[in-house]
Every structure is written in C-alpha cells, then in structure tokens.
Amino acid sequence: MLPHLGEYRRTHFFSVCDGHGVFGKEVSDFVKTRLGQYVEQGIKMTFDQAKVAQRVVDSTEVKEQLHKSFSLVQDTLFRESKINLRFSGSTCVAVLIVGTKIFCANVGDSRAVLVRQVGHSEQRLAIPLNRDHKADEPDEEARILRNGGRVQPYRDIHGNPLGPLRVWHLKEDIPGLAMTRSFGDQAAAQVGVIASPEILEMNLIEGDQFIILASDGVWEFISNEEAANIIMPHYLNNSAEKAAEAIIKEAIKRWQEEDTSIDDITCIIIFLSI
User: Fold this and answer.
1) Tens-digit pLDDT profile for residues 239-265
2) Helix (H) and strand (E) counts in the chain
3) Is 99 within a domain?
4) Counted domains in the chain
5) Does 3 reside within a domain?
6) pLDDT, tens only, 40-79
7) Residue 8 confidence (pLDDT)
8) Which of 184, 152, 168 is CA-nearest to residue 77?
9) CATH code assigned at 142
C-alpha cells in the first residue's frame, strides 16, 4: 500500500535526491527533508482552499505548489543550512500522485520511469517522466551561455576531450558540473545552473504497473527498458523491496564491469494500483 501524504488519501509523494561534491550528502539530506515538508504544506493549503470554495483542485495549482516548494528549498538551503555550497549540491526527481494524476518534478540527472502494460499483452512501455538536465540539451546550454558560462568537457594533458559536457565559468576552470540544474552549487548558479524544476503531468491508466525513481548511478549503464525487465519478476511477486535490491545489484555489477569506481546508487520502486 502506498503511504499517504498527510491526511489526504490517494495523494502520495516520493523523491530521490543525489548529492555531489564534498558536502553532497548534507545537501541531499536537507533537500529530501525540506521538500517533503513544503510539498505537504502546499498541497494541504491548496486542498483546504478548494474545499472552502467548494471546487475541484486543478492541475495548474498543483504545479504551482511544486514550483514553490522547489524554490523554497533552494532559498532555505542558502539562508539556513550553513552547508558550504560553493561546489556541493544535489539533484532531485520527485513524483506526486494525486488520485489518478501523476506529476513529476525534476532538477538534474536523476530519472523517473513509468512502466505501462500494452493492453493485455506481455509488451510493456518504459516511459520517461522527465529529461536529464545536461549540457548537451540545446536550451540548457543556451541558458548557461547567456549567463556568462561556458560548456566544455574535461580535457586531458594533450587537450583531448574526456567525458560529458560540463558547466564552467568563462575564465576559470570551475566548477565543472555535469548537469545544468541542481540544488545548491553556488559557483555553478553564478553561470545559469538553476533549481527550477520541469514538471510533467500525466494521467495514470489501467495497465500502469510501476514507477522507477533512481539516481544517475542506475541509469549510467542500465536503459529504461532493461530496468523494467529487471523489476518485472519482482512486480509479479509483489515485492517492491526486492525489485529495488535487484536494480541496485545490477547497477553495481555494471559499474564494476565498465569503470574503476562506482557512483552513488539510489532507487525507489513504486507499485501502482489503478
């Protein structure tokens, strides 16, 4: 059974936050705690006002509350946290379910994927609920350039490019952030990295089976479709915990095969009942 958001039945909130930098864990812990509080407060206020006015809450109001909640987190992170944020921050992908509507809000490169059965067949669609905020997205790169930053990969001693595009100050080799939206990251925020989420709204329908929320440590070497296939046997056995364990185990295995280090790996599996 899904946990309810406060007193509102059929309203549920989940998030995955992935910290980076020296104080990344402190930032992600702060974001995780405060975002849940602010979303609950905002949704409660929205529902209470609608109840008094005897009207139905519309999607625009829910999205506004999500935007406000993300903004409040960024504001209080800088004003109250006392964390050194110059080169530390966190991604966040959050899913709010209200009845049969789902809202996915995201900053950074963590990802949410909805798995949907096609009719009564064995075919399933792995539907991304957000896009990764990386510097190879033209609109994201444009914002960084407008704000006086530059977008380039790391380079080796011979000048050859290494790895993904990153965000830098125009005349300094800082911060080298591999994403274009995040919480914290003070140095990156000076050149256009923002904590404003993109929000996708979708109606849940019959055949929607589960949602995967995971950090980029999962998605680096596992595709959306592969993740769905790994989880499916555990979905049929009604074990979300074992599904998450299977994803994490497979992600670690692939990191060991492909790299000399292992990124942070966080995963939540939400089984749906529509």
Assistant:
1) 999 999 999 999 999 999 998 888 899
2) 7, 12
3) yes
4) 1
5) no
6) 999 999 888 887 787 778 899 999 999 999 999 999 999 9
7) 60
8) 184
9) 3.60.40.10
Per the listing, tokens 């995967």 go with 212
Summarize pLDDT for 18-51 with one digit per residue, the tens. 999 999 999 999 999 999 999 999 999 988 888 7
Domain around 176: 11-269
Cis peptide preceding 175, ω within 30 of 0:
yes
Predicted TM-score (pTM) of this structure:
0.93
Which among 81, 78, 49 has a CA at the least distance from the CA of 64? 49
**Residue 121: which residues within 8 A CB-CB, separation 6 or more?**
none
Question: Which ranges of the chain would DSSP assign to H, the alpha helix?
Answer: 24-52, 59-80, 138-146, 186-189, 216-219, 224-236, 240-258
The reply to whether 56 falls in a domain is yes
**CB 50: neighbour CB atoms within 10 A?**
14
Note whether residue 102 is domain-resident: yes
